[in-house]
Amino acid sequence: DGGITQSPKYLFRKEGQNVTLSCEQNLNHDAMYWYRQDPGQGLRLIYYSQIVNDFQKGDIAEGYSVSREKKESFPLTVTSAQKNPTAFYLCASTMGGSGYTFGSGTRLTVV
Amino acid sequence: AQSVTQPDIHITVSEGASLELRCNYSYGATPYLFWYVQSPGQGLQLLLKYFSGDTLVQGIKGFEAEFKRSQSSFNLRKPSVHWSDAAEYFCAVAPPYNNNDMRFGAGTRLTVKP
User: Fold this and answer.
1) What is the mean pLDDT of residues B1-8?
2) Which of A4, A33, A99 is closest, CB to CB, to B34?
3) Which residues of B touch A7 (CB under 8 A)?
4) Which of A28, B59, B96, B98 is the most buried (most CB within 10 A)?
5) Residue A98 has pLDDT above 80, yes or no
């Protein structure tokens, strides 16, 4: 079955460390998105990409970076510049106006 | 820019009772509207969407939503709630033909009493 796979499910980051969250989709969707979810705040857009080798900043891009070298993959790096990275991260994709398909998320915790 | 408000942070209903979750949006024209559901520790699943046409939209799991332009609302309803419906529900709004600017509400957590 087609879908979005996020890995790992849980990730622990030490202070000053960069970590990369994986997002892979086999839906042949063009557009992919990264959201951050904090309790009581809904979802906030970090980055999105409409086509390979192109991506745009969302509302809270500071301290994050992305790449889109393949249509299927859209990894997110949480850099040491992100001062409060503890959150639940969701990857999504879409084709046209069909609504988003989401992955099952990665919970990142700073230790 | 568009925005969406879910006035109820938490709602508790008894199993078998009816449910209505409120959603109000702000946008200058008719937007695209969505409802998603999220189980704990999971991603979001699309329940239903409204683009145009019939203002009563049917979705999965027995849910429906009604678009009311005059009230800028898109409330989600279910006639009889099951214990498995306990989850968090998110309303979302996007400009027509522009999925890249989807805005989510803060969510409503649904608890179902036996």
Assistant:
1) 92
2) A99
3) none
4) B59
5) no
Residues 12-71 of A with CB under 8 A from B: 31, 33, 40-43, 45, 48, 50, 56
Q: Is A89 on the interface with B (CB under 8 A)?
A: no
Compute the CA torsion angle B87, A5, A82, A33 (nearest 10 deg).
-80
Nearest-CB residue to B51 (from A42, A97, A101): A97
Please tell me the distance from the alpha carbon of residue A104 to that of residue A88, in angstroms, as a whole number: 10
User: Tell me, what's the pLDDT at B76?
Assistant: 98
The whole-angstrom distance between B88's CA and the closest CA on chain A is 10
Instruction: Give the pLDDT confidence score for residue B99 in this predicted structure.
Output: 75
Flag whether pLDDT at B95 surpasses 90: no
Strand partners, A88: A37, A107
Position B100 pLDDT exceeds 90: no
What type of residue is A61? A
Q: Which residues of B4-26 are buried (b: 16+ CB within 10 A; e: fewer)?
A: bebeeeeeebeeeeebebbbbbe
CA angle B27–B68–B17, rounded 5-degree value: 125
Please list, in sequence order, all residues whose beta carbon lies within 8 angstroms of the beta carbon of residue B83, skipping any fewer than 6 positions away. Answer: B15, B112, B114
Q: Which of A42, A97, A102 sits opposite B107 (nearest CB)?
A: A42
